């Protein structure tokens, strides 16, 4: 199963809206499955009109650990407190874990001389999937409040999606360039970078592109709302040309995107004028996959 990852660097550029409509367009040519890998703020299913009552096999999972202290064994040496890089341990004669601070790295367990520290599994996310009315499934997860381990959760979501009978996996990544983005990109055959013509949009796209290039993944660029700042749109286009990159599409600012989101409907379905735009985009992505 080949995979395409949609990412942006900056949040709010329309990445999930693009992914939802691209998914519908791709499903006309390929049997696809989607993975919402923005596990800190999972919303691709929502954009596709899926509600919580539609969730299937929705259950808690553990991809992380936290510290458990046995204070009877503790000799009050304070080595765990001194070694904790994340400042997750309070120490007042005896160690105590701060709420929402432990990353589960296990260093404190390694340095404890009396075996007073144990790493225990914790449920840190909910995971599940749903069927869409567009004839493909969406796999997703939601990190629980205050928990960590999003990169591992992303990998789990992708693995679950890969168990389905599909030709193509479409991944909706999170914003930024951190662990969940890296996990989303790992193993991808093609990347679609969505940006907007703003200084932060352009800058963050280049940061995301550095990660894409690190993995040597071929890619194309979508400039969303290209007409809100034609000067920066020109800069992005010149940057793409200088780096032998393809501009897959330039999409104008359109309030239909807002109305579509309010109605929990992908814009390709909300207004049929977008069918040709996303159909052409889907064809380009498929060509790049078949002719890397």
Features:
292 residues; Rossmann fold; Alpha-Beta Plaits; two-stranded antiparallel ribbon
What does this structure look like?
This protein is of the alpha/beta class. It folds into 2 domains: 2-61 and 125-290, P-loop containing nucleotide triphosphate hydrolases (Rossmann fold, 3-Layer(aba) Sandwich), CATH 3.40.50; 64-122, Alpha-Beta Plaits (2-Layer Sandwich), CATH 3.30.70.20. The protein is built from 11 helices and 13 strands. A 9-stranded mixed beta sheet has the order 3-8-9-2-10-1-11-12-13, with helices on both faces. It has a two-stranded antiparallel ribbon with strand order 4-7. It has a two-stranded antiparallel sheet with strand order 5-6. Helix 1 (15-26) crosses helix 11 and helix 5 (150-162) runs parallel beside helix 6 (179-185). The model has no long low-confidence stretch (mean pLDDT 94).
Provide a compact summary of the structure.
The protein is α/β, with parallel strands linked by helices. It has helices at 15-26, 44-47, 79-83, 107-111, 150-162, 179-185, 199-214, 230-242, 256-262, 267-270, 275-290; strands spanning 2-7, 32-36, 56-61, 64-69, 89-91, 95-97, 117-122, 125-131, 137-143, 168-172, 190-195, 219-224, 246-251. The protein has 2 domains: 2-61 and 125-290, P-loop containing nucleotide triphosphate hydrolases (Rossmann fold, 3-Layer(aba) Sandwich), CATH 3.40.50; 64-122, Alpha-Beta Plaits (2-Layer Sandwich).
